[in-house]
UniProtKB/TrEMBL annotation:
<keyword id="KW-0812">Transmembrane</keyword>
<comment type="pathway">
    <text>Plant hormone biosynthesis; brassinosteroid biosynthesis.</text>
</comment>
<dbReference type="InterPro" id="IPR036396">
    <property type="entry name" value="Cyt_P450_sf"/>
</dbReference>
<keyword id="KW-0472">Membrane</keyword>
<dbReference type="GO" id="GO:0016132">
    <property type="term" value="P:brassinosteroid biosynthetic process"/>
</dbReference>
<protein>
    <recommendedName>
        <fullName>Cytochrome P450 724B1</fullName>
    </recommendedName>
</protein>
<comment type="similarity">
    <text>Belongs to the cytochrome P450 family.</text>
</comment>
<feature type="transmembrane region" description="Helical">
    <location>
        <begin position="6"/>
        <end position="28"/>
    </location>
</feature>
<keyword id="KW-0408">Iron</keyword>
<dbReference type="GO" id="GO:0005506">
    <property type="term" value="F:iron ion binding"/>
</dbReference>
<dbReference type="GO" id="GO:0020037">
    <property type="term" value="F:heme binding"/>
</dbReference>
<dbReference type="GO" id="GO:0016705">
    <property type="term" value="F:oxidoreductase activity, acting on paired donors, with incorporation or reduction of molecular oxygen"/>
</dbReference>
<dbReference type="InterPro" id="IPR001128">
    <property type="entry name" value="Cyt_P450"/>
</dbReference>
<dbReference type="GO" id="GO:0010268">
    <property type="term" value="P:brassinosteroid homeostasis"/>
</dbReference>
<dbReference type="InterPro" id="IPR017972">
    <property type="entry name" value="Cyt_P450_CS"/>
</dbReference>
<feature type="binding site" description="axial binding residue">
    <location>
        <position position="421"/>
    </location>
    <ligand>
        <name>heme</name>
    </ligand>
</feature>
<dbReference type="GO" id="GO:0016020">
    <property type="term" value="C:membrane"/>
</dbReference>
Amino acid sequence: MAITVALLPLTVTLIFGLACILLLYYLFVKKEKPKGLPHGSMGWPFLGETFSFLKPHKSNSIGSFLQQHFSRYGNVFKSHLFGCPTIVSGDLELNNFILLNEDKLFQSYYPKSVQDILGKLSLMLVSGELHKKLRTVALSFIANSKSSPDFLLYVDNLTISVMDSWKGCQEIHYAKEAKKFTLYVMLKNLLNIEPEEQLASQMLEDYLSYMKGLVSLPLCFPGTPYAKALKARARISRTIREIIEERRKKEGPKRGDFLDEMMNKRSEELNDEERVSIVMDLLFAGYETTAGLLSLLLYYLAQAPEALEQLKQEHQSLTKSKKHGDPLSWQDIQQLNFNSHVVNETLRCGNLVKFVHRRALQDVNFRGYHIPGGWQVLPVFTAVHLDPSLHDSPSDFNPWRWNDEAINKKVNPFGGGTRLCPGTELAKLEATIFLHHLIRNYRWKLKEDTDFPLSYPYLEFSKGLKLEIQPTNDIS
Ligand code: HEM
């Protein structure tokens, strides 16, 4: 008995030692890290490196976080972001591989806080058959709009009225003007809401809050941007639902907008929750990014007099070939080759969408990189757009580089694969019509040298893009 008691501490020590050895074996030998897992750092517990990754930087740069990580670990690295172990890719081939394998090896996956604002039926979040069904409806709106003379005429008239409203002004806050313009185009064509209606300005304010919430910390206390965004989302969704219910009650002449078209679909094809969600997606995706494009265009052209001159000449010769006052048609826009180079270069340099969120559905091996199943994957478009091994002097705004068609394969401002942005042509069309009137009617200058596009990670101008404007007399 005495011997047994004397041996007790030794036995406990032995068991403890054995347990430690087993644990170490499990951690370092048995659970050996998979070969090919990219290098990188997982940062702080839970927070990982999220704050450094999201630190705002000029949108024509990749920012200090990516710069440091790419030079230390290469342009594919591991990290811990938005609460998940993550592979970050700044590699063109890996990015394309991720986008092209949607629903096979990878799937769209946004953080919970973003999901709560977008809504569970948002196109960006749903997958499989539901994604196909909702996307087809969204695509039909976009296809009909771009070929509809009424739509083109509306964009043309709204552009003219925006520019008329600048008469007598020497200075404008252009970023907000662009947001108003693109939201009002969408509101009219989706819901038949006119810019002068009180509902239009209420929607604008709600979408501004919505956007601020998307990029803020997900703190749901009264008064935080996140809480305000959730409220704004609920208000927008309620308003669209009320419009649907009102239309259903009032039998009468159709308005011919997209909501009417969706309401004609039987409820087995589309229910009201899906209708509301599609309208919200198109309003949001259609206005915010296109407004960013309009702002970036003016920002870059203000600093590129040669490009602006060539653009003016191209638009002027198109105007001369048309009957006075006729709006641009889709075919006219296709002919504007240099205009298309300017828009494409603006998207490459300005980087409206820095990255997208995906998740690996299983273990994936690509070119020696191992991506564990369940990990988050972030293809970073900005890194590819500004990669000096793909583009000469990548941060220079040089629309002529688009004379080489090979560049099309080295950029993806609109994403790719089955989630390729359906609004690509609509955004280019709106931007072109706006430019067509602007360059013939106004000269503009950046008011402040210190105002530049920031990646927040969504695009924002640090001072709202204040412009000095002056009407020209060279209207032909
Ligand atoms: C310059 C303007 C635009 C840019 C840079 C842009 C960029 C993008 C990108 C990168 C995606 C892919 C997101 C992902 O893969 O997770 C996307 C998706 C989407 N965009 Fe755009 N977009 C623009 C304009 C528009 C417009 C005008 C509309 C509609 C009127 C629109 C509607 C959508 C929709 C509905 C999706 C989701 C598609 C899906 O998941 O199937 N976008 N956009």
